């Protein structure tokens, strides 16, 4: 833990915090929040918080770090930085809604000629365009753990049928490594539960999980079987304001007939 930088960061965020009506009373002589107000909002003692700001105590627990991030109304980036300074794995709060991020949704709505969809970092599809629906089916029909494409990939053979057989093994490895990266970043109950269910439900997943591979995919190349035949597609993973969501866009590989085949899908 870098106690000095942690102390500096807490002081800076406290000074920048905007006092709420509940936290203000009388004439204020300091900018931002008082130490007493931060301690009360975080549910810790004033003495302990003061020692944190003065680098006179040991590493705070994960629970205290999360409470301080909430008390100081930190952004996702600030929260992640605070966890790193405290030498804890970064933990993001659970998404407050299951709606697609507006920025990603605006882009999705402009994509008419290529398949695209918005997904959470646990593989739950939040929005699809017409070509995504045509290739992968309507993801909204799934419930429970099956809402996750990770879960369906390892428990439902039908989920793999649209992918060319020769890329399925590689796809399996990549999906497990990708999910492990997500679970390292967030260890909340939904994430832990998905990992536990997959280890119990799929021997293939459990074996790949034990390999401890970690990956965050930015782009990939896939062969996908659509209504008009096999498609050679680049797959791009794009993020915006919501760190727990991604826009997945499939574009034709140059020199193939994928663009023509996509155009023929009604």
From TrEMBL:
Transmembrane segments: none annotated. GO terms for molecular function: DNA binding. This is Helix-turn-helix domain-containing protein. Residues 27-79 form the HTH cro/C1-type domain. CDD domains: HTH_XRE. It comes from the Bacteria. Pfam families: HTH_31 (PF13560), MLTR_LBD (PF17765). It comes from Streptosporangium subroseum. InterPro entries: Cro/C1-type_HTH, Lambda_DNA-bd_dom_sf, MLTR_LBD. SMART domains: HTH_XRE.
